[in-house]
Write a structure and sequence with these properties.
The chain has about 190 residues and is an alpha+beta fold. The chain has helices at about 5-10, 55-60, 70-75, 85-100, 115-125, 145-150, 155-165, and strands spanning about 15-20, 20-30, 40, 110, 130-135, 140-145, 180-185, 185-190. It has one domain (about 5-190). Helices cover about 35% and strands about 25% of the residues. The radius of gyration is 16 Å and the shape is globular.
Length: about 190
């Protein structure tokens, strides 16, 4: 099976290391939840207790392999904060399914950047107290995270930004901030800060 061109771009832009006798790229993640421990492997979680049963079937149909922590927060769990973020994520997911179905869903991904300095920048934006970890993963999709931080004033703007994101384009008028959507398994290598 040929590798999608966006994946080749992602793979070329990170440092390569070995893991399990295979070459895999290394990335950096800001550990927003404080749960990433060196030596562990991050995998998807499949929920069997979504209620009512119709919601369980719905989740299983769209995400049969389970969810990342991000997917659990924005797709499975009840809303506890601002609903705009969840709405944006749903628009992003529907856009992905429509124009880039081969790309990984954000609901099954772990997020990372290519360099430790990029991680430090994100950490500063988030408040500066979260850990930075180095990860290994064999699969990553590259997109401009600046497209997500834009607070849209209409659905058409939100839809347009989502299309740019899933086609690997940059936000107009702004330098890109590339993020990688990592697919499990993701191995946490070490804490950097």
């Amino acid at each position: 099976m040929p590798i999608p061109s966006r994946l080749l771009i992602a793979i070329r832009s990170v440092a390569w290391q070995t893991w399990s006798n295979a070459w895999v790229p290394r990335y950096f993640t800001v550990d927003r939840l404080g749960t990433l421990i060196p030596g562990t492997v991050v995998e998807l979680t499949h929920f069997n207790d979504i209620d009512p049963p119709d919601f369980q079937r719905h989740a299983d149909r769209y995400f049969p392999d389970g969810f990342s922590k991000f997917g659990e927060r924005y797709f499975v769990a009840p809303w506890t904060g601002p609903q705009l973020e969840s709405t944006i994520e749903l628009v992003w997911e529907q856009t992905r399914r429509s124009i880039a179905p081969e790309a990984p869903s954000r609901f099954v991904s772990m997020f990372a950047v290519a360099t430790e300095s990029d991680a430090w920048e994100i950490r500063a934006r988030l408040g500066g107290t979260r850990r930075i970890v180095k990860d290994e993963a064999s699969d990553g999709f590259r997109a401009d995270m600046n497209l997500l931080v834009h607070r849209p004033d209409s659905i058409i703007v939100m839809s347009y930004m989502a299309e740019l994101y899933w086609t690997g384009q940059e936000r107009p008028g702004m330098p890109p901030a590339w993020e990688f959507l990592l697919q499990s398994p993701v191995r946490v290598v070490m804490v950097c800060a």
